[in-house]
């Protein structure tokens, strides 16, 4: 639980950066809403259509089910998606992105619908979304694949370090897809803060919303370290950044990129007006951990990120 608390705090800090940083956008311009290709994404499988059981041994690639008894009378299982995949099981709760999460815990019981998404980037600006719908039986740790859908994505904006924001239309909605190298903190159109640690974030914007709709997100990506006569400041305390085995080369750094996507429409507009911006949320030196802390209880403290001093 402590590791989860650390991740949550870092993600929320990243989302807060996106709200206050005001970094300049690097995207040259935003496409029109009507120019974004429309794609069909099927609804998740419905529980009423679920089979009674799935025999042990049925699997799909890069998704596993780990059983763990958390309580004496209640057995739970953890579904883990590898390779940057995002997984969602059953009904997606409010505040959770439709793309899902890297892992989720479920109570062992009836067979449930499951969706696994993966962003496949062949190169910056050329990508597709792979969506696998399946049935999950946690009692036998089995997964039965039903259908695979591949959605071609269009580029909405390009930012620094070849970071690209993708999207597609789904009726009156704009589905925004943002790659994630580590974790993304975001504020959804309802104003709720969330985070994801899988390979991408997908959130929809309703083009018919009366007062418009907006997404703000921020996450850290790898980039070249700018030459500096002084010693570069660290981004975060190492234990909050990445395991030692994933340490970056001396000429690389993790830097926060922010994304803002909004749609609005007046009575005079023939279609929703789309605006997309991508840019750095901090200067070349990154951000450092200050002496300020947040008390999480049980003697656990998390540094608050503040701009590096000049």
From TrEMBL:
Residues 296-310 have a biased composition (Acidic residues). It comes from the Bacteria. Keywords: Signal. Residues 288-310 are annotated as: Disordered. Residues 1-27 form the signal peptide. This is Uncharacterized protein. It comes from Polyangium jinanense.
């Amino acid at each position: 639980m402590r590791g989860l608390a650390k991740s949550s705090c870092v993600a929320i800090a990243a989302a807060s950066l996106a709200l206050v940083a005001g970094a300049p956008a690097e995207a040259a311009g935003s496409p029109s809403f009507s120019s974004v290709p429309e794609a069909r994404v099927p609804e998740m499988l419905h529980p009423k259509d679920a089979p009674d059981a799935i025999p042990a041994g049925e699997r799909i690639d890069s998704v596993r089910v780990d059983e763990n008894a958390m309580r004496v009378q209640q057995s739970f299982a953890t579904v883990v998606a590898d390779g940057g995949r995002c997984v969602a099981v059953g009904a997606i709760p409010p505040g959770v992105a439709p793309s899902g999460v890297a892992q989720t815990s479920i109570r062992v019981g009836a067979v449930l619908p499951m969706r696994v998404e993966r962003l496949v980037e062949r190169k910056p600006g050329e990508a597709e979304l792979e969506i696998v719908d399946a049935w999950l039986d946690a009692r036998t740790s089995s997964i039965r694949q039903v259908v695979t859908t591949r959605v071609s994505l269009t580029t909405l904006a390009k930012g620094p370090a070849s970071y690209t924001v993708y999207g597609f239309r789904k009726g009156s909605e704009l589905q925004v897809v943002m790659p994630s190298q580590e974790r993304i903190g975001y504020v959804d159109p309802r104003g709720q803060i969330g985070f994801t640690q899988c390979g991408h974030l997908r959130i929809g914007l309703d083009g018919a919303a009366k007062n418009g709709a907006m997404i703000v997100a921020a996450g850290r990506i790898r980039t070249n370290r700018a030459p500096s006569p002084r010693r570069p400041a660290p981004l975060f305390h190492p234990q909050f950044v990445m395991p030692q085995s994933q340490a970056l080369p001396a000429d690389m750094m993790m830097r926060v990129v922010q994304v803002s996507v909004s749609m609005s429409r007046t009575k005079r507009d023939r279609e929703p007006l789309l605006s997309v911006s991508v840019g750095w949320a901090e200067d070349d030196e990154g951000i450092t951990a200050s002496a300020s802390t947040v008390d999480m209880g049980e003697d656990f403290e998390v540094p608050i990120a503040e701009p590096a001093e000049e």
